[in-house]
Amino acid sequence: MRVLFVFLLNFRNYPRAEVSFGPGLNALVGPNGAGKTNLLEAVDLAATGRSHRAQREHEVVRFGSEWAIVRARFGGAGRGHTAEVRVARAGLKQIRVDGVPAGRGDLLGRVVLVASGPEDTQVASGPAAGRRRLLDGLLCQMSPAYYHTLLRYHRVVRQRNQLLRAQAPAQLLEVWDEQLVDLGVRLAERRAQLVARMAPFTLYWGERLGCGQVEVQYRPSCDPEVEAARQALRRLRREEYRRGASLVGPHRDELEVRLDGLAVRSFASRGQQRAVTLALRLAELEVVRAELGEDPVLLLDDVVAELDRERAQRLLRSLEGGPQVLVTATDRSDLPGAHAVSVEEVRVG
User: Fold this and answer.
1) What does the H/E/C string look like for the chain?
2) pLDDT band at 315 (very low <50, low <70, confident <90, very high)
3) pLDDT of residue 345
4) Contact (Cβ atoms closer than 8 angstroms) between residue 129 and residue 283
5) Each residue's pLDDT tens digit, 114-133
6) 217-226, 248-257, 289-298: which has the minimum mean pLDDT?
7) Which residues pair with 101 in a beta bridge?
8) pLDDT band at residue 341, thresholds of 50, 70 and 90?
């Protein structure tokens, strides 16, 4: 998989820009504030139909403009497509694939991105929601069916929570219980399968990056089996009414990450947490390669600058001859060992 070019109009700090990318390592070089991260965000938006960086999507619209456009061409395995996303300051969003109006689900499954940036430290050190998003983000890209199941599940949780807060009768809740269990079991099974596939790769990349033995395990909030989930709901019914929230299901599950047998969240230093999270992202890359037969596009924002020189060199050497990588840097000297890698350099700013 590759991104061939991206065209921006009124996007973030860009009034207008078009950037082409080559295979292998693409270094986006420029000073802080020039817009390197914005370019990666644009690729993300065109590939997935959503900016995972913006709190509200209209934030991507350049100051003084009413709308922003991102258009990108992707290719891979004998196929390709052009995606265009138009975001209005009023909050409306329009998506087109090869010129045809489409929904976000129509983009997913066409190209897979694996992205890592400064916010990734929250995956290791923050609440469980960030680790769940890591799993869901990859599964949604690999399987549009998972994306639609996840949307339905979140709607059921919201509706059920409203009924709990309103102290609705138990028989009314039971209708939503069945949907919660059915959809939740499916999501938990897919997540557990993904984590099991990632596990040997997190060990490999943890050692390769020199951070130690990185282990992952999926911890569901209850036994991910239909009857067990039903029993858990019945057992917690009174507490759910008291708290006005659904206490069973994938929205409360945990991805446990350990480094050399200790919980990364509690015992690892910030540098170790950064390296461990990068090992998780590279494990995602390996899963995509194994399951889809081709590499995803790898987006690395300020990753090399945050690693010590030895780990950065190991990373770049390991990626040589592999996936297309878009990596940001303030200077080529921030990419130790880059002379040994084919680098398509893009100047920003």
Assistant:
1) CEEEEEEEEEECCEEEEEEECCCCEEEEECCCCCCHHHHHHHHHHHHHCCCCCCCCHHHHECCCCCEEEEEEEEEECCEEEEEEEEEECCCCEEEEECCEEECHHHHCCCCCEEEECHHHHHHHHCCHHHHHHHHHHHHHHHCHHHHHHHHHHHHHHHHHHHHHHCCCCHHHHHHHHHHHHHHHHHHHHHHHHHHHHHHHHHHHHHHHCCCCCEEEEEECCCCCCHHHHHHHHHHCHHHHHHHCCCCCCHHHCEEEEEECCEEHHHHCCHHHHHHHHHHHHHHHHHHHHHHHCCCCEEEECCHHHHCCHHHHHHHHHHHCCCCCEEEEECCHHHCCCHHHCCEEEEECC
2) confident
3) 62
4) no
5) 999 888 878 888 899 999 99
6) 217-226
7) 96
8) very low
